[in-house]
Amino acid sequence: MRLYVNIDHVATVREARGADEPDPVQAAAAAERGGADGITVHLREDRRHIQDADVRALRAAVHSVLNLELGAAPEIVRIAARLRPFQATLVPERRREITTEGGLALHGSDARVRAAIAPLTARDIRVSLFIDPDLRTIDRAAALGVPAIELHTGRYAQTWRKSNAALRALARAAAHARARGLAVHAGHGLTYENVQPVAAIPEIEELNIGHSIVSNAIFLGMEEAVRRMRALVDEARERGAGSGT
Ligand code: PXP
Q1: How many domains would you assign to the chain?
Q2: Which of 69, 93, 150, 206 is labelled catalytic?
Q3: What is the pTM of this model?
Q4: Range of the domain at 78
């Protein structure tokens, strides 16, 4: 299973002071030493954390692969098409949200999403759509012809202590998506405590984890914070493979 580390909040700390540290490029290198298979950043329209120059620098410096999260605003799509990250994950973006709140709905009003997929795909960028674990939305994603989806694990992250309903919904959604030929990614709100049941879902091949890793990096350093997540993910995966699930 691939572990992609989202380093947006390294830039959040830098922007809080308007200074030039901490440096996301250094954070990416440390995450890679800790076992990250990819580096994820979200270039928001409001540029509240990651800046255009960060994406350019990371595109050049990352040894693994760069996954650029973006809303479907034409300006940002043009930047992504020009920079050509390995992967572009389209997300809904609202100006006043604290973090990405829900998945893309992919109904008629998501015309901008449809318009974004073509120029990215034309530049050989692998396009993934961030959606809720909802079977009809998965069918809409498959109909759009993208190779991958990322399942929003936010509801699971909020409810996993009390109920396993959200985990079951993720497992069902992952199997449904895989059966339709989609590569299945997942992320949002995953922590050392709750990552393993999600990592054990066999159809999920990539996790995107940010806030919790960056939080732990304050105490452990980025390399060690990633190494701990890597070990938990690998352990859950091996256990799942061993039990034949
Ligand atoms: N995946 C997507 C599409 C996201 O927007 C985010 C948040 O930036 C994440 C994963 C990571 O979520 P978290 O920071 O809660 O780990």
Answers
A1: 1
A2: 69
A3: 0.95
A4: 2-242
Euclidean distance between CA atoms 94 and 48, whole angstroms: 12
210 CA distance to ligand 1 centroid (A)? 6
Question: Which CATH number do you get for residue 151?
Answer: 3.20.20.70
Whether the CB-CB separation of 212 and 192 falls below 8 Å is answered with yes
Tokens 């990819």 correspond to 38
Tokens coding 155: 């509801």
Whose tokens are 């040894």? That residue is: 63
pLDDT in tens, 129-145: 999 999 999 999 999 99
Counting atoms of ligand 1 from 1, which one is nearest the CA of 188? 12
The token duo for 72 is 């479907």
SS3 of residue 124 by DSSP: coil
| Confidence tier at 98 by pLDDT (50, 70, 90) | confident
Packing angle, helices 52-61 and 74-83, rounded to 10: 20
Q: What is the pLDDT of residue 105?
A: 85
Give 198 Cα–ligand 1 centroid separation in angstroms: 15
pLDDT > 70 in the chain, percent: 96
Q: 54: Cβ below 6 Å to ligand 1?
A: no
Distance from the Cα of residue 138 to its chain's centroid: 17
